[in-house]
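The instructor's notes for this session suggest beginning with a concrete chain rather than abstract definitions. Hand out the sequence below and ask the class to guess, before any prediction is shown, which regions might be ordered.
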Amino acid sequence: MTLQNPFFPQAKTRPTSLNPHKLGPTSLRFSLKNLLPLAVLVGTFPLAAEAGMRALPDPLKPSQYHAADPAQAELGQLLFYDKILSGNRNISCGTCHHHRFGSADGLSLGIGEGGKGVGPDRTAGKGDDRIKQRVPRNAPGLWNLGHKSVRVLFHDGRISNNPVYGNGYKSPAKKHLPQGLSSVLAAQALFPMTSDAEMAGTPDENEVAAAVHDRIDKGWPILTARVAQNETYAQMFSAAFSDVDAPEDITIVHVAEALSAFMNAEWRSGTSDFDRYLAGDAAAMSAEAQHGMQLFYGKARCNDCHTGQLFTDDEFHALAIPPIGPGRPLPNDRVARDNGRMEQTRRIEDAYRFRTPPLRNVAVTGPYGHNGAFPTLEAMIRHHCDPDKSLASWTTEQAGLPEVPWLAKADFVTLQDKIETARQRRHVDILDRPLEDNEIDAIVAFLESLTDSRTRPMGVPKRVPSGLPVDQ
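After discussion, reveal the predicted structure:
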């Protein structure tokens, strides 16, 4: 590995800021942490660590999660799979975060409002109801989002714990986000309902989307009224929330809290081979997975960013992922790029940076990257090893994009823009880290050991109170 001074960048590892504190954790920093041997694992764990291997995280504990009331979680399960919360009543949260796909959808970029089916078999619809655009970013898994350490969500971090607006959160709704949300997960649950491509639809199609286009929070009361007018839901809200005595007492905060309780209770880790290993069972992980663990916490330095119990630093890093799809351009952009964290901060040093994804259950929540450009864990790891080589060999066939002829021209338009792709390649926060093929295989085996039981406590409901069809 060639180490480079961040104040005198060379070739492709040029940082976007001369402030060393702005560099991603995987860029070289001149500190004792980099110069001295890292903590060596000793004591209660069954495997002796190699020199330089960092300590493993503590086991997850139920007390580390926000409380999830069972009655609220039961209500949230129904709402999660009920299309009543979408503008056109044709898509639910569960459509793109389905149990069958580990709480994701198995696509690089989702087929949202207007599509038909679930997962890789989902189609883009027909006629006037067909989709108008692909969802611009990959649908992430929902594992452990109720953990108390989670403070920021979405690929660009657009929702975070922050008191700036007086409601506890920094979000696209700013001061219009309602008071009383108990966690960043509850706040996050509200925003897919406001997205044209995801659940709202377009203003000419329904009153929810029209209201959202007037102001982002104005669609929520309409959706709340739909739910409150359903007798079954009204009774369930009254039973689950002490401050709801009548249908008119139900607010969008109650809806968000129910959704949050379900996601929190349903997708918690703790049953994987790695968890059994942490508990002292030396045979829980294969020898190859244990070798991969040593590499992950040692030579490969994956733990620079994928740290802690959830395997994320909740920070933002530029990895030069191949650009696909419509992106999320800024208002004055002339190209269909995805600016990443810069969309929120408007700081040039945050261009093309995206939140470090948690890795628990990563083996069942692909494709990988903020836009799902890589279909396998092996491909994603190889990209980390040598981004330039990976980009040179990447082909459009690797993208899991269901065929949408009327959107085909936009799918790879940024990839064909030589100026824009060169700009993205200059913004890279990782250094090359050569690994042998068998070492990559071992890291994949370790990541697969982070997979929990696919049988979840609640699962997909067979029916929902609205009577609308449930994606099974």
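Then share the key points. The first strand starts at residue 152 and ends at 153. The chain is about 30% helix and 5% strand.
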